[in-house]
Amino acid sequence: MAIATTNPYTGQIEKTFEPHSDEEVDRRIASAHAAFDTLRGTTFTQRAEWMRAGAQLMEDDIEHLARLITIEMGRPIKGARAEVLKSAKGMRYYADHAEEFLAPESLDDASAVSASAAGTRYDPIGIILAVMPWNYPLWQVLRFAAPALMAGNTGLLKHASNVPQAALYLDTLFERAGFPVGAFHTLLIPASGVERVLRDPRVKATTLTGSEPAGRSLASIAGSEVKHVVLELGGSDPFVVMPSADVEKAATVAVTARNQNNGQSCIAAKRFIVHADVYDEFTRLFADKVAALTVGDPLDEQTDVGPLATESGRDELAEQVADAVAKGATVLAGGSAPDRDGWFFAPTVLEAVTPDMRLYLEEAFGPVATVYRVSSREEALAIANGTTFGLSSAVWTNDAEEEDWFVRNLDAGAVFVNGMTASFPELPFGGVKDSGVGRELAAVGMREFCNLKTVWKA
After folding, report:
1. CATH number of the domain where residue 412 is located
2. Pairing of strands 348-351, 416-417
3. Phi, psi of 308 (to 5 degrees)
4. Which residues are annotated as catalytic?
């Protein structure tokens, strides 16, 4: 893929960028390495001051940034503004809590290990390479960068090639905020250039948010170099609705859970598993609400769903839906790409999806929902867990025993009860099975890229 901004609303190339040469990449790695020696010696108080300054810069630039996001990847402008604010909030969260999260811990009874004192401390490890996707071009990066830099690490960003302007904004953000020159650099390189960077001995670890194949490839390289990796990969999240649920509310939330960010979210609810007792009511409400969404220019404040970010993504989604319909699925709403400029796909609801259809097991990365009728919680769980993915999940029930049963038995990195999946700086985020390894966010996410060092004193 060329490194370029291509407006998904028009299909027109807005701006192109030359990839960094090998010499420039080497210069940036060296700069990040030098910055690590400086940054690790600063105090949490100093880093927090810089991080808060960076958050303020983003908020000051909100209109520019929101428009940039919308033009680069098609997110409706309201959601783009929300992403800017969420990113700034995440930066402030780590500014406020980093020292607490990485505080040394003492063993209560040091004599048990024949010591006068013993415990652990968290130390930064060096340069972290982040390989990030286009669907949340600011938030995905900053939920890595904020804790990494607050821990005293430095960062290199290989961003998706279709959001280069977002990548270049982030390239200068932390330096503008006061961090040492080189503390965070963007690398304008193709995917084929990632291996060379990761194998550089100065790069100590890597994190990727993206597709399962990309994650497997990066993990293989990191493993051969014995380098730590955190992966947040695809998802096919279940949204289970049981008879005791508030069906009206569940259907309303389901529309947002599936269609936010034009349906292009790993943690979007994708498979709606509904008990037979409330199936007809839920599907009627859900399909009607989906059909009522406003599709159009993502810069229009009234737009709910804009174009998909890439033409290939739109075509892939169209092929998945066509395959399902050809094999007997029923269209309750949408079902096709409208005849218009831009990479649009109508918000869609399908039922009667069967295991021989691609949509049964594949991730649908766009505004397409599949609905399943079940007769028991055991059947709901079997469908929910019957996928190679395990990122997040949601269950709607007002039965306390049933809630506990689903929370214990859903194979996922998270369970949201009577709500939709979202990421919060305060809570760990990540999946199981083919949805990834490791965790982002909260204290545990911050500690992923630290050396947990045992200290023993005679």
Report:
1. 3.40.309.10
2. unpaired
3. -70, 160
4. 232, 266
Distance CA 455, CA 451 (A): 12
Give yes or no: residues 102 and 244 share one domain.
no
Query: Running DSSP on this structure, what letter comes out for residue 90?
Result: H
Composition of the chain by helix, strand, coil, percent to 5 = 45, 20, 35
Determine the Cα–Cα distance for residues 263 and 257; give it in Å rounded to an integer.
Answer: 8
Per-residue b or e along 268-294, where b marks 16 or more CB atoms closer than 10 Å to that residue's CB? bbbbbbbbeebbeebbebbbebbeebe
Same domain, 117 and 151: yes
Q: Distance of alpha carbon 318 from its chain centroid, rounded?
A: 23
Nearest of 249, 237, 271 to residue 374 by alpha carbon = 271
Q: Do 280 and 298 fall within a single domain? A: yes
CA distance 439 to 429: 5
Rounded to whole angstroms, what are the CA distances from 410 to 8, 209, 377? Answer: 36, 22, 11
What φ, ψ does residue 100 adopt, rounded to 5°? -65, -45
224 with 277, same domain?
no
- Domain contains 430: no
**322 with 395, same domain?**
yes
Residues 6+ apart with CB under 8 A from 23: none
Q: What is the mean pLDDT of each successive set of 10 residues along the chain, which is 458 residues long?
A: 93 97 98 98 98 98 98 98 98 98 98 98 98 98 98 98 98 98 98 98 98 96 98 97 98 98 97 98 98 98 98 97 98 96 97 97 96 98 97 98 98 98 98 98 98 98
Q: 150: domain range?
A: 4-233+435-457
Q: The CATH number of the domain where 447 resides is what?
A: 3.40.605.10
Q: Would you call 202 exposed, middle or buried from its count of C-beta atoms within 10 A (0-12, 13-18, 19+)?
A: middle
Q: Do 166 and 214 share a domain, yes or no?
A: yes
- Assess if residue 51 is contained within a domain: yes
Q: What is the pTM of this model?
A: 0.97
Number of domain units in the chain: 2
Q: Are 357 and 324 in contact (CB under 8 A)?
A: yes
Q: Which amino acid is at 143?
A: R
User: Same domain for 89 and 58?
Assistant: yes
